[in-house]
Fold this protein.
Amino acid sequence: MNYPFWNVDIGYGVLMASIAVIHVFVSHFAIGGGLYLVVAETLARRNQDDEKLNLLKKLSKFFVLVSVVFGALTGVGIWFIIGLLNPGATEVLIHNYVWGWATEWTMFITEIAASILYYYGWKHMSGRNHIIIGWIYFIAAWGSLFVINGIITFMLTPGEWIQTGNFWDGFFNPTFWSTLWLRTGVCIMLAGLYSLLVLSREKASDFKVSMVRFNAIWGLAGLLIIVPTMYWYWHVIPQTITDTALKMMPTPIKSLTASFWNVGAIALLLIVFGFIIPRRLHFIAALVIMLLGLSWFGHFEWMRESIRKPYVITDYMYGNAVEVSKKDVYKKQGYLSEIKIRTGDDGKDLFLHSCRTCHTLDGYKPLKPAFNGTDKAFIKSIVLGAHKLKGNMPPFWGTKKEAGLIADHIYKQVDQRDLATIYGLSGQALGAKVYEVRCNRCHEIGGYNDKSEALLTGATEESLGMILDMAGELAPEMPAFTGNAQEKKALIEYLLTVKE
Amino acid sequence: MLLTLPSYDFISAPLWLVTVLHIVTLTLHFLAMNFMVGGLAIVLFGCFKNKQANPIVEKFIRAFPSMMAATVTLGIAPLLFVQLVYAKPVYAASVTSAWFWLMIFMVAMGSYYFLYGAAFSKKFIGIKQRVYLIIALIGFVYVSFVYSATFSMSEHPDVYQALYASNQTGLVLNPNIMSYLFRWMHMLAGAVMVGGFFVVLLGRDNEQAFIVGRRFYLGAFLVSFVLGIAYLFALKDILRLIMRGPAIWILTGSIALSVLSVFWLYKRKIVLTSIALLVSFVGMVVVRHIVRLIYLKGSALAFDPAQIPFQPQWSIFIIFLVCFVLALAAVGYMFKLFYGEQK
C-alpha cells in the first residue's frame, strides 16, 4: 500500500501471465537446449557426423536469437511487470534476496557471453574448445535456474523463514528441491520437443529417423523426470494449502487436471512418432506435440501461481500487498492511513488497494456481474466477509466505514436495476438467480460450505422468510438479506423446490 | 498466530558497498550503451566515404548485437541496486508511468532484433541495413527518454504524487520536462562522444575512422558540455547544495579531464585519452548519484538511504562475490579460447 496503483483495464493476472509464460517457455528451453546442443555435438563429433553437425549449427542460430535475446529481455520484462503489479512484494523479495539475484546475474553474464561465443565459434573453433564453451553455457544456465528457483519457491512455501527471517531458510524452502528437478525435467523435455519440430521439416531419410528417435528420447526423459517430481512437489506443499485449493479454489485445480491430460497425450505421441513411425513425423504432428508441451507447462505455472492465493508470499503478504504483520495497525486505523500515495477519492483508493489486484470491473475476474442488481449493504458485507467466499480471498482488515466506501465506489458503477429487470426473470428462475448472486458465493448447494441442510430441513415458506429476515445475525460475515420483496419471494420459492 | 514476522526494511550489505557496486555496474552499463548508441549514430551519420569498403563500419554493425547483450546484462545489476536502495521513489515513479515503463523492454527487444537483422545481412551498408539501424536507434532514443523522465520523476516525490492523483492509467509521463530534458540530451550527446572514442579505438589503424571518430568526439563533447551546463543551471533549487558539497569538485575535475581527453585524442595519445575519459565518466556517474541523494533528502519523503537499517547477509554476499569472480574468469577463459583460435 506504499505505492501508487496502476489502474489498467487489463487483469493483473493476464498481464503477468502474458509475459511470464513466454519467459518461462523460452528460459527453460534455453537451459535444456544448451544441454541438448553440447551432448548432441559431442556425439556427432565422435561419430564425425557432418550432417548432424550442420543441423546443430542451424539450431544454434535460432537458439541464440530466441533464447538469448527473447529470454533475456522477457526476463527483464518479468522484473518490470512485477514491479508494476506488485511493487510491495517485489520490494520484499529484493530486500531479502538481493544477493541471490546478484548471484544469478553473475551466471547470466556467463550464460550470455557463452551463448554468443558458442554461436560464432562454429565457424572457426576446434571441436574440443567449442564443446567446452557449450558446457560452460549449460552450467551457468542451470545455475541461474538453481538460484532463481529458490526465490520463486520461497513465495509459495517460505518455510522456516517466516520465523527466522534467515536467507537460507527461505531459499532452501520445502518446495525447493522438488521444483528444481521438476524444472530440470521441463528443460529437457522442451529441448526434445523443440528439436523434433525443427527436424520434422527435414525430408524423410535414415538420418531423420535416427534423429527423431534421439529427440523423442529427450522428450520422454524429460517427462520421466516430470511425473514423479510433480507428485513430490504436490506432496511437499503444506497440506493446508493443497486442501484449501481442493476445497475452494477452482483455478489451480482446473489447471492441475488439465496438466495431467497433457502429460499423457505427450507421452503417447512421443512413443508413436518416436519409435513406431518416426519416418512419418510431419510438421503438424511435431507442432502438436510442442504445443501440448507448452500447454502442460503453462498449466503447471498457472497452477503454481494461483495456488498461492490469497497470498503473494504465503503467510506474509496478501496478493493485494496487505501485510500480515500489520494486521493490528490496519484493524485499528484502517487501510486509508496506510495508503501512502492517494488519488483524492477515498473509495477508489480503497477499492484499488483491496480488490483491484485480483479483479477488474468488467474483464478478468469481473466484479460488475457479481454485483449487478444488488445494493450497497450487500456489497459492503461481501467486502467484510471476503475471506468466506469461495475462491480463497484475503480478509478485509480495514474499518467498517472503509468497507462502506468501497461499496459506494463499486455500487456507482454496477447496473442498479433489480435482478428481475436485468435478467428478465421471474418466479423460480429469478429465485435461482437471487441465490446465485446473494448466497452461492459462500454456500454452494451440494458444494462449498453447503448450508442447505440447516436451511432446508423441515423448511416452510414462513421459516425461510424468517431466516432471511434475520440472515444478518446468523454469522458475523453473513450478509443481511437486502433484496426487494419480489426477490425474497422468488428466492423462497426456489429454495423450496431445491428442498424437493 | 501473530508472530513477529521478518522485516523487509533493511539492506543486507553495508550501504557504501552497495553504492560502489551500483556505481561501478552503472558505469559499465553506460559505457556499453554509449558504444552502441553513439556507434549507431556515427555509423549512420558519420559520412564515411566509400562506405562499402570501410571495414570499421562493418565491424561496428557486426558488434552491435553483442554490445546490446552487454548493455542489457550490465544494466540488470544497477537496476537491482537502485530498486534495493531507492525502492519507494523508484517504484512509485515507474508505476505512475507504467505503460511507458513497461514498453521499455519491448522496445529494447525490437531494437535488438533490428540490430541482428542488420548484422546478419550480407551487404555493408545497404539501404535495408540503414533502415534497420535507424529503427533500432529510434528505439534507444525512446528507452533513454523514458528512463530519464522516470528516474528524474523518482527524485521528485511531489511530482509523481500530483501526477498519480490526476491519472492512474499509467499513460502519463513526467510533466516537469525542464527537469530532465537537458539531462537526457546531455546523456545522449555524451553517448555520441563515447561512441566517437570507440570508433577511434577500433579504427586505430584506419585513418578515416580515426578522423571521423575524433570529429564526433570533439563535436559531441562541445554539445554535451553546453547541455550539461544548461542542466546544471536547471537544477537551480539545489545548485547551491551542489556547490557546497564534494559534487562540485568531482564535477569540475570530470570536466577538466574531458577537456584533457580531447586534447590527448588530438595528440593521438589513446591510452591517456581512455584513462581521462574513463575517470571523468565515473565522476559524472557519481555526480548524478549525489544529485539524486540531495533531491530525495530535501523532498517530502525526506529519504536518506543511510537510515535504512543494516542487517547483513554475509554468507550469500560472499557467494555472490565468488561467483562474480568465477564468472569473470569464465568469460575471460572463453574469450581466450575463442580468439586464441581465430588467429
Remarks:
- Chain B has a mean pLDDT of 93.
- Residues 258 and 277 of chain B are 6 Å apart (CA to CA).
